[in-house]
Design brief:
By secondary structure, this protein is an all-alpha fold. The protein folds into two domains: 30 residues; 73 residues, Orthogonal Bundle (Cytochrome Bc1 Complex, Chain D, domain 2). The protein is 53% helix and 0% strand. Helix 2 packs across helix 5 and helix 4 packs across helix 5. The longest helix has 26 residues. The protein is elongated and about 85 Å long. It binds heme C (HEC). The site of heme C (HEC) has 20 residues, from helix 3 and helix 4.
Length: 116
């Protein structure tokens, strides 16, 4: 006769290991802050220092030739594309590579998306 597998023993043995792995993942996430979300409040400050003169904002119209982010111009693209455009610059648009970090730019874009 085949020995019956004791299911209760198997599952109760596995549960603490799962909890251990889950705990380790949560701890890693907390320490490394891997779940960073863009901060539009920080972005507002950066935008008013670096971008508002050309792209406009509440009560300020965009300079001729610059997309008005208050009217949502140019924003129908993913964050990654807008970040590259900001880093590299284009014609009268200055390049911000070396001036703003990727995190700075993503925060700024998060704020730009609240404008219209
Ligand atoms: C000196 C004026 C000026 C400043 C300052 C400026 N921009 Fe621009 N920006 C422009 C102009 C002009 C364009 C349009 C460029 C073109 O298409 O020829 C532009 C275009 C863009 C675009 C769209 C690029 C594309 O591919 O269509 C993004 C995104 C952008 N700017 C983001 C920013 C951000 C973010 C800041 C601040 C960190 C900023 N800009 C600061 C003038 C400026």
């Amino acid at each position: 006769m085949k020995p019956k597998m004791n299911l209760r023993e198997t599952t109760s043995g596995a549960r603490p290991r799962h909890l251990l792995v889950l705990g380790a993942l949560l701890l890693t996430g907390a320490i490394c802050n891997t779940s960073y979300a863009a901060d539009p409040n920080r972005g507002r400050q950066l935008y008013s220092i670096h971008c508002i003169t050309c792209h406009g904002g509440p009560g300020i119209t965009a300079a001729p030739g610059s997309p008005s982010f208050e009217r949502g111009q140019g924003l129908m693209r993913p964050d990654f594309i807008l970040m590259e455009a900001t880093r590299l610059g284009k014609n009268a648009m200055p390049a911000y590579q070396g001036v703003l970090s990727n995190r700075d730019i993503l925060d700024t874009i998060a704020y730009m998306r609240t404008l219209h």
